[in-house]
Design a protein that fits this description.
The protein is an all-alpha fold and 152 residues long. Helices cover 72% and strands 0% of the residues. The chain has one domain (38-151).
């Protein structure tokens, strides 16, 4: 008797990969990387600039090659959580997890499901991508929003 595979079985693997990536990256991010480093300067500049814009001092704030949307988002989230480092790291972590999740569906639109799973694993196990997800950087949010645009 031949085993009949249900159509949601590969999607279960995709969710499992995404959840494992989130748990591992969140653990490293919040328990081992607990201070600002020299590499987190972009997130810090966006956070401080967003706070200045929200405080009404927008004339002195300039971002080279960037709009005010990201800094204002960081400033609003900081006014809610009152911890800028946590906010920037959380946005980076959620953006990285979203990229891993949506990568399966984007690759599946081009290739079949097996190749999509392998592609998602390549993205999830990429060391540079994991580093960007654990640090307080602003690089992954635009990439995540671009990937969401491809889905919808």
């Amino acid at each position: 008797m031949k085993y009949k595979e249900n159509k949601y079985s590969r999607t279960k693997y995709s969710l499992l990969i995404t959840i494992c990536f989130f748990i591992i990256t969140a653990y490293v991010s919040f328990f081992h990387h607990v201070y600002w480093t020299i590499f987190d300067q972009d997130g810090l500049i966006y956070l401080v600039g967003g706070k200045q814009i929200l405080n009404g001092d927008a004339t002195n704030v300039q971002f080279v090659n960037a709009g005010p949307g990201g800094p204002v988002l960081y400033g609003v989230l900081d006014s809610i959580f009152h911890d800028g480092f946590f906010v920037v790291k959380l946005v980076s972590l959620l953006s990285g997890t979203g990229i891993v999740f949506f990568s399966y569906y984007i690759i599946k639109n081009i290739f079949d499901e097996k190749i999509a799973l392998v592609g998602q694993l390549f993205i999830a196990f990429n060391p540079w991508f994991s580093i960007l997800s654990t640090q307080a950087l602003n690089d992954l949010l635009p990439i995540f929003l671009s990937m969401v645009e491809y889905i919808f």
